[in-house]
Amino acid sequence: MPVNQEFKPTIVAFCCNWCSYAGADLSGTNRLQYPANVKIIRIPCSCRLNPMFVLRAFQRGADGVILCGCHPGDCHYTTGNYYARRRMTLLFSLLDYLGIEKERTRVEWVSAAEGAKFAATMNDFCQTIYNLGPNRRLEDLRCKSE
Amino acid sequence: MQRIGVFVCWCGSNIAATVDVKQVAEALGKEPGVVFSTDYQYMCSQSGQEMIQEAIREHRLTGVVICSCSPRMHEATFRKTCQKAGLNPYMVEIANIREQCSWIHKDKITATEKAVILGRAAIAKVHLNAPLTAGTSPVVKRALVIGGGIAGIQTALDIADAGFPVDIVEKKPTIGGKMTQIDKTFPTLDCAACILTPKMVDAAQNENIDIISYAQVEKVQGFVGNFSVTIRKKARYVDETKCTGCGLCTEKCPQKKIPNEFNLGLDNRRAIYIPFAQATPKVATIDPNYCTMLKTGKCGVCSKVCTAGAINYKQEDEIITREYGAIVVATGFEPISMEPFDEFAYSQSPDVVTSLELERLMNAAGPTGGTLLRPSDGAHPHTLVFVQCVGSRCDGAQKGKSYCSKICCMYTAKHAMLIREKYPDTEVYVFYIDVRTPGKNFDEFYRRAVEEYGVHYIKGMVGKVTPQDGKLKVQASDLLGGRQMHIDADMVVLAAAIEPDKSARPLATMLTASMDTNDFFTEAHPKLRPVESPTAGIFLSGACQGPKDIPETVAQAGAAASKVIGLLSKNSLTCNPCTAKPDELMCNGCSSCEKVCPYGAITYVDKPFRGPNRTTLTRRVAQVNPAVCQGCGACTVACPSGAMDLQGFSNKQILAEVDAICR
Hints:
The complex is a heterodimer of chains A (146) and B (663).
Chain A: E1 11-16, H1 20-29, E2 38-43, H2 51-59, E3 64-69, H3 80-98, E4 105-109, H4 115-132
Parallel strand pairs in A: 1-2, 1-3, 3-4
Helix pairs in contact in A: 1-4
Chain B: E1 4-9, H1 21-29, E2 34-40, H2 46-58, E3 63-68, H3 71-84, E4 92-96, H4 98-102, H5 108-127, E5 136-138, E6 143-146, H6 150-161, E7 166-169, E8 184-185, E9 190-191, H7 192-205, E10 209-212, E11 215-223, E12 226-233, H8 248-252, E13 258-259, E14 268-269, E15 272-273, E16 285-286, H9 292-296, H10 301-305, E17 318-324, E18 326-329, E19 333-335, E20 352-354, H11 355-361, E21 383-390, H12 408-422, E22 427-432, H13 442-451, E23 456-459, E24 462-468, E25 471-478, E26 483-489, E27 491-496, E28 498-500, H14 504-511, E29 538-540, H15 550-568, E30 572-574, E31 580-582, H16 592-596, E32 602-610, E33 616-624, H17 634-638, E34 644-646, H18 651-662
Parallel strand pairs in B: 1-2, 1-3, 3-4, 6-7, 6-18, 7-10, 18-29, 20-27, 21-22, 21-27, 22-23
Antiparallel strand pairs in B: 5-30, 8-9, 11-12, 12-17, 13-14, 15-16, 19-28, 24-25, 25-26, 31-34, 32-33
Helix pairs in contact in B: 1-5, 2-3, 5-18, 6-7, 6-15, 12-13
């Protein structure tokens, strides 16, 4: 349950086209609920996620960023998720150093068959972000339209 | 500035029930660049598509956003629609407001809000879309079938009939698969060998089919239409071209005590063997683990008796590399190991057998010549107990599988019926959780077993089997009768669950084909594309995709073959135009992208550039082969200068989406 009723977190989920996006579709097909705060961006492979995208999300006011890809060994492009894993490990340490809590960033492996896992992951991640409260670091208030 | 049209689909009530589609269309209509915005009940229908085409022409749209179901469902449909109206198909973006919005939210206000944001993100992306033109790549007109069971044989025969060459790779020395071990088939009770062996012969004699037996796929490269596959053909130490299959060597070999895999270890074979009389190819194979000559260098009996001079102890594994346009996976199934189910005393008594073992014990070509005898003492059994669902439908799946193996109910009814018919003095008990017999003439078959043949069907589970005084004490519960039962059985038959063949998982990795948690291959769409893998050019046939009986397997094999024929009859395929593209002015030729490319699509060329003071500089820049690039985007992130970008998913496009979502 939300700690702060006012707080409506923005969560950006990057999902690879082959496994996790299909997993997200499956959780929809199975009518498994997760909060509307999660907005999914489709990318061809988890390795397409440029660290720049994560930084920009936080800059524009995202409260959490999650990357979902195929399970290690199951990448549609054979090795993409291994690159993603290494890059994100490094990026998340850097973000932690900048004051963005490690819990605000996450990498999860969700296969096309794991609709339930996708919904559970998103519920858990949203709860974590609710508990952490809004992200103030890196946010560039000039970018806000209001 | 783009002129964008927004089309919001109701999907009947699927979207409209939880998302206020009118409000979404109105809100998105106010976005910059949007010149037309509307909603409609079924956007994918004929009239919906016509509406889109009309709007494109009337409003001179340069970009289209469709708020509807998942792009995995109808992206291709809408791209085609727009293409017909003269718009580049890659100027279309889908906002997924069904699977990822209306179906997962209940509150109409939040769902509508989210749908607007998803729509905005798609509009922001379309603003930066550029028309893309797909290239083409040629199709190699040859198919590969992995697995030579009934599924593989049928697929190969159907492809070959259409005039395309096809190779079958089989890991065993002979094709035929599990069906060769089966005695009779349900529900007609015709003999499996009588219907299978002619097909095996057909496959062997078909000039379009090349059977590569005793071989395994080692490496798969390439993509749809252009696979390059490396196959290891294991040394069988017998020259296939010379061996006549007379079988003299298999009678003279002094190594006699080797468990015969074909009869599931119920009898023995020699170190040089032909699996069974109808083996195809009918060629002897030496088992290097047992052959005295290969192990110690002393023996050579087979070579002395072979009149054809086919034995070659120095034969080595052969590596075959061939090009294929399509690959069919037909790796089949195997029964699960009975080790975790020790309550049924499988390891303690030879009289506890699996159904496949019983199949061999009842087969005229089996170790007992078709007479049902107890494996322990060779006596005629009088009481038989069948245990259903051993390892199937296990809750929590600590041991066994969570799924239903589908075929067990029917083959058990078959076994029970055959036994009662042949030996009316026997009592047959079947313990079941549920009897599942959907299928043409299946339930009638089961009813016959109960009513005509007097098989005792008891709803309940067997708790324990204890070998005692030459009998098997079976403790079970009768749920409908509400009592405990104790039966002194002569034989216990376990309906072992079936699981995908062990070779399937590593093969899926090689093919980059996806699998579910049970290691069954996943189909591209469970209802509409059941024989295709999500990976283009990979097709599925038989039990590798899920438990299946023979008619279903044959039907799926034919379906897979028709998909392959459809693919191979094309001369060229349209490539995915969403490929990586370097900005040559920014590229410094550092090779970072080349190192991460899994396809080897990136090469470097020296190119002249205009330098200062009218000089010409030659620089090394990256070049992407669009026919090979699959568009994963690994290189775009690796590029330190930001020169590499992915068309259709460019940095700017994704950043625009991020901005739209976080606005």
